[in-house]
Automatic annotation (TrEMBL):
Residues 307-367 form the FYVE-type domain. This is FYVE, RhoGEF and PH domain containing 4a. Residues 308-358 form the B box-type domain. Keywords: Cytoplasm, Cytoskeleton, Guanine-nucleotide releasing factor, Metal-binding, Phosphoprotein, Repeat, Zinc, Zinc-finger. GO terms for cellular component: cytoplasm; cytoskeleton. CDD domains: FYVE_FGD1_2_4, RhoGEF. InterPro entries: DBL_dom_sf, DH_dom, FYVE_RhoGEF_PH, PH-like_dom_sf, PH_domain, SOS1_NGEF_PH, Znf_B-box, Znf_FYVE. Pfam families: FYVE, RhoGEF, SOS1_NGEF_PH. Gene3D superfamilies: Dbl homology (DH) domain, Pleckstrin-homology domain (PH domain)/Phosphotyrosine-binding domain (PTB), Zinc/RING finger domain, C3HC4 (zinc finger). One of its GO terms (biological process) is cytoskeleton organization.
Length: 439
């Protein structure tokens, strides 16, 4: 906080990372711990703790706020550690203190998340050993009911934290070049496979990382402490199919087809099924909406689609995340959209003609004006993301100008539905091509 007050980094960064941890600490140090210590001293005459816990467990709801912000806090901590040397130096100084026990700050920040599940386990164990007719049983059971509810949210956050940790490990294994560290990405499975060459049936060592939305097909590389794999192909789960094949020399073979490749068919098929179910639920959410007619638009309050019913923007279909693409509701139609699709405001009659945020389609209908999208993009300004998921091939290649000696790594895309053209980008996230040509 002292460094933030000096202007080294914004004060809001510290508040967003550590959330309400000071309130949680005050609750424990000033209320829960003193009451429990006092009761332990009186245990001979008053052998019970259920009454204390029942009185104080409602305050454990403070953990819900901390848990809710935990993913965002981890992401912010990583971002500022990567981009701000003063911030990184402060974190390293904190972690070097003896009281930290050589553990990372992320480890200590996980402790409050794990606290409530520990209370739940201890209270369950206490009730197992408590006689059925004990006077403390009723209070202890009521306390357990409240704590168990809070623990459900904490356990979810712990799983997300473990998943994020795994994503970071994979990110480092791939040389910190693949954009996979994202709250919406869930690690499923990994492992070695042997690729059979199509022409001579020779085998080649390969490695696969399977996520909820994609498969990374990797090639091992010689490494002395550096990255261990290079991503050869990134395959989207959407449209992926897995079928078993037969080979006399190599049992247990299978083939993955989609917009590309293959490992454990069971895990693949399960991931594909889950992806399709989520996509279907998104379509059903669209069908179940009690749409506001054009005549009623802005005159009648819409039924808002619940946040948990959709995982992607209902206009541009881009997946939501907690940092760069958060959920917003159109006040005219009730759809859940991203900020890019809700960056317009109009006066709504049902809300006393106050200015409200609406999606671009509702804005056009209510004002009769089209949303300015900018000039039409030229052929060399096509966004990489527009074609990556619907391409004949995409991936990194080494490129050099004709006759040149300098080679550079570029992201290449051959669109599936466009004419047969190879687009070259500086990176997968770049929105402007460097070159294009017939492959």
């Amino acid at each position: 906080m002292e460094e933030a007050n000096k202007g080294t980094f914004p004060l809001d960064v510290v508040k967003n990372i550590f959330s309400n941890i000071s309130s949680i600490h005050a609750f424990h140090s000033q209320f829960l711990l003193p009451d429990l210590e006092k009761r332990m001293g009186e245990w001979a005459s008053t052998p019970r703790i259920g009454d204390i816990l029942q009185k104080l467990t409602p305050f454990l709801k403070m953990y819900a706020e901390y848990v809710k912000n935990f993913d965002k806090a981890m992401e912010l901590l990583k971002q500022w550690t990567d981009r701000s040397p003063p911030f990184k130096a402060i974190i390293q100084e904190i972690q070097s203190q003896e009281i930290c026990g050589s553990l990372t700050l992320q480890h200590h920040m996980l402790e409050p998340v794990q606290r409530v599940p520990r209370y739940e386990m201890l209270l369950k164990d206490y009730l197992k050993k408590l006689p059925q007719n004990d006077p403390d049983r009723s209070d202890a059971e009521k306390s357990l009911e409240i704590i168990a509810t809070a623990a459900t949210h904490s356990n979810s956050a712990i799983r997300k934290s473990e998943n994020l940790k795994k994503l970071m490990e994979i990110y480092e294994m791939l040389g910190e070049e693949e954009d996979i560290v994202h709250p919406s990405n869930e690690f499923i499975k990994e492992g070695h496979i042997m690729k059979l060459a199509a022409r001579n049936t020779s085998t080649m060592d390969r490695y696969l990382y399977l996520f909820n939305n994609m498969l990374l097909y990797c090639v091992p590389k010689f490494s002395l402490g550096g990255p261990k794999y290079t991503v050869r192909t990134r395959i989207g789960i959407d449209g992926m199919k897995v079928r078993e094949t037969s080979n006399e020399d190599h049992p247990h073979t299978f083939q993955v087809s989609a917009k590309r490749l293959s490992s454990s068919p069971g895990a693949f098929q399960e991931t594909i099924d889950i992806f399709q179910q989520k996509n279907e639920s998104f379509k059903n959410a669209l069908k179940d909406v009690e749409e506001v007619s054009k005549a009623e638009l802005g005159k009648r309050a819409p039924r808002w689609i619940r946040d948990n019913e959709v995982t992607m923007c209902m206009k541009c279909r881009e997946p939501f995340n907690a940092i760069t693409r958060r959920r917003h509701h159109c006040r005219a139609c009730g759809y859940v959209v991203c900020w890019k699709c809700s960056d317009n405001k109009v006066h709504l009659e049902y809300d006393n003609h106050k200015m409200n945020k609406v999606c671009k389609d509702c804005y056009s209908m209510l004002t009769g004006e089209g949303v300015t999208e900018g000039r039409r993009k030229g052929i060399l300004e096509i966004e990489a993301a527009q074609f990556t998921d619907s391409s004949i091939m995409c991936g990194f290649l080494q490129h050099s100008e004709k006759g040149g000696k300098l080679w550079q790594r570029v992201w290449c895309v051959i669109p599936e539905k466009e004419c047969l053209v190879l687009y070259l980008y500086g990176a997968q996230q770049v929105t402007k091509t460097q070159q294009c040509g017939v492959p």
